[in-house]
Design goal:
This protein has six helices and five strands, in the order αβαββαααββα. It is of the alpha+beta class. The chain has one domain: CBS-domain (Roll), CATH 3.10.580. A three-stranded mixed β-sheet has the order 1-2-3. A two-stranded antiparallel ribbon has the order 4-5. Helix 2 links the parallel strand 1 and strand 2.
Length: 143
Protein backbone atom coordinates (compact mmCIF):
# COMPACT_ATOMS: atom_id res chain seq x y z
CA UNK A 1 0.00 0.00 0.00
CA UNK A 2 1.23 3.50 -0.80
CA UNK A 3 0.82 6.96 0.67
CA UNK A 4 -1.38 7.77 -2.34
CA UNK A 5 -3.84 5.04 -1.29
CA UNK A 6 -3.93 6.40 2.27
CA UNK A 7 -4.55 9.97 1.05
CA UNK A 8 -7.17 8.83 -1.47
CA UNK A 9 -9.07 7.25 1.43
CA UNK A 10 -8.66 9.95 4.07
CA UNK A 11 -8.33 13.10 1.97
CA UNK A 12 -5.61 15.63 1.37
CA UNK A 13 -6.81 18.47 3.60
CA UNK A 14 -4.11 19.77 5.93
CA UNK A 15 -4.40 22.45 8.56
CA UNK A 16 -1.55 24.90 8.21
CA UNK A 17 -0.27 27.94 10.02
CA UNK A 18 2.07 30.76 9.07
CA UNK A 19 5.47 31.08 10.74
CA UNK A 20 4.62 34.52 12.18
CA UNK A 21 1.48 33.37 13.98
CA UNK A 22 1.62 33.19 17.76
CA UNK A 23 2.06 29.87 19.48
CA UNK A 24 -1.21 30.48 21.32
CA UNK A 25 -3.04 30.38 17.97
CA UNK A 26 -1.38 27.07 17.14
CA UNK A 27 -2.48 25.66 20.50
CA UNK A 28 -6.05 26.81 19.83
CA UNK A 29 -6.13 25.13 16.40
CA UNK A 30 -4.61 21.89 17.68
CA UNK A 31 -7.12 21.69 20.53
CA UNK A 32 -10.11 22.70 18.41
CA UNK A 33 -9.40 20.11 15.72
CA UNK A 34 -8.03 17.43 18.07
CA UNK A 35 -4.83 16.99 16.07
CA UNK A 36 -1.19 16.63 17.06
CA UNK A 37 0.68 18.76 14.52
CA UNK A 38 0.39 21.67 12.10
CA UNK A 39 2.37 22.13 8.93
CA UNK A 40 3.92 25.60 8.77
CA UNK A 41 3.72 27.25 5.35
CA UNK A 42 4.21 30.73 3.93
CA UNK A 43 0.69 30.67 2.56
CA UNK A 44 1.77 29.25 -0.80
CA UNK A 45 1.68 25.61 0.38
CA UNK A 46 5.50 25.51 0.47
CA UNK A 47 6.52 23.71 3.65
CA UNK A 48 8.76 25.78 5.93
CA UNK A 49 8.34 23.76 9.13
CA UNK A 50 6.16 21.57 11.28
CA UNK A 51 4.86 22.29 14.75
CA UNK A 52 3.96 19.37 16.98
CA UNK A 53 2.61 19.07 20.48
CA UNK A 54 6.12 18.10 21.58
CA UNK A 55 7.52 21.37 20.21
CA UNK A 56 4.94 23.29 22.22
CA UNK A 57 5.60 21.35 25.43
CA UNK A 58 9.32 22.05 25.11
CA UNK A 59 8.68 25.76 24.54
CA UNK A 60 6.38 26.04 27.55
CA UNK A 61 8.83 24.08 29.71
CA UNK A 62 11.55 26.52 28.69
CA UNK A 63 9.61 29.79 28.78
CA UNK A 64 6.50 29.17 30.82
CA UNK A 65 3.23 30.86 29.87
CA UNK A 66 5.13 33.62 28.04
CA UNK A 67 6.12 31.08 25.37
CA UNK A 68 2.57 31.24 24.05
CA UNK A 69 3.32 34.77 22.79
CA UNK A 70 6.30 33.57 20.73
CA UNK A 71 6.09 33.27 16.96
CA UNK A 72 5.62 29.77 15.60
CA UNK A 73 8.92 30.11 13.71
CA UNK A 74 10.80 30.24 17.02
CA UNK A 75 9.36 26.92 18.18
CA UNK A 76 8.68 24.87 15.03
CA UNK A 77 10.91 22.16 13.62
CA UNK A 78 12.34 23.77 10.47
CA UNK A 79 13.97 20.70 8.92
CA UNK A 80 10.92 18.70 7.97
CA UNK A 81 11.11 15.11 6.82
CA UNK A 82 8.62 14.59 4.02
CA UNK A 83 7.36 11.81 1.81
CA UNK A 84 5.55 11.62 -1.49
CA UNK A 85 2.56 9.61 -2.58
CA UNK A 86 4.73 6.86 -4.06
CA UNK A 87 6.27 5.92 -0.69
CA UNK A 88 5.04 2.61 0.68
CA UNK A 89 3.61 2.09 4.14
CA UNK A 90 6.76 0.22 5.15
CA UNK A 91 9.02 3.06 3.93
CA UNK A 92 6.97 5.62 5.84
CA UNK A 93 7.06 3.48 8.99
CA UNK A 94 10.86 3.39 8.74
CA UNK A 95 11.07 7.18 8.29
CA UNK A 96 8.77 7.84 11.26
CA UNK A 97 10.52 5.31 13.49
CA UNK A 98 14.01 6.57 12.67
CA UNK A 99 13.00 10.19 13.25
CA UNK A 100 10.78 9.42 16.27
CA UNK A 101 7.87 11.52 15.01
CA UNK A 102 4.20 10.86 14.38
CA UNK A 103 3.33 13.15 11.47
CA UNK A 104 4.78 13.22 7.98
CA UNK A 105 3.82 15.86 5.41
CA UNK A 106 3.33 14.67 1.85
CA UNK A 107 4.85 16.83 -0.84
CA UNK A 108 4.21 17.00 -4.58
CA UNK A 109 6.10 19.33 -6.92
CA UNK A 110 7.61 21.13 -3.93
CA UNK A 111 4.23 21.90 -2.35
CA UNK A 112 2.22 20.43 0.52
CA UNK A 113 -0.16 17.77 -0.80
CA UNK A 114 -1.33 16.06 2.40
CA UNK A 115 -0.21 14.68 5.72
CA UNK A 116 -0.16 11.21 7.21
CA UNK A 117 -0.01 10.28 10.85
CA UNK A 118 1.29 7.19 12.55
CA UNK A 119 -2.38 6.27 13.11
CA UNK A 120 -3.00 6.36 9.35
CA UNK A 121 0.05 4.16 8.79
CA UNK A 122 -0.89 1.63 11.46
CA UNK A 123 -4.45 1.43 10.13
CA UNK A 124 -3.17 0.84 6.59
CA UNK A 125 -0.74 -1.84 7.77
CA UNK A 126 -3.45 -3.66 9.74
CA UNK A 127 -5.69 -3.62 6.66
CA UNK A 128 -2.82 -5.10 4.61
CA UNK A 129 -2.20 -7.89 7.13
CA UNK A 130 -5.91 -8.71 7.35
CA UNK A 131 -6.21 -8.80 3.55
CA UNK A 132 -3.15 -11.07 3.29
CA UNK A 133 -4.56 -13.40 5.96
CA UNK A 134 -7.87 -13.60 4.10
CA UNK A 135 -6.07 -14.38 0.83
CA UNK A 136 -4.12 -17.17 2.54
CA UNK A 137 -7.37 -18.60 3.97
CA UNK A 138 -8.97 -18.52 0.53
CA UNK A 139 -5.92 -20.20 -1.00
CA UNK A 140 -5.94 -22.96 1.60
CA UNK A 141 -9.70 -23.47 1.24
CA UNK A 142 -9.42 -23.92 -2.55
CA UNK A 143 -6.26 -26.07 -2.53
Amino acid sequence: MTVKAILDAKGRDVLTLGPNEKLSEAVRILAEHKIGALVVTNGDRKIVGILSERDIVRAVARGGHDALDEAVRAVMTPKVKICNEMHTVNQVMEIMTAGRFRHLPVERDGMLDGIISIGDVVKARIEEVEREAEEIKQYIATA
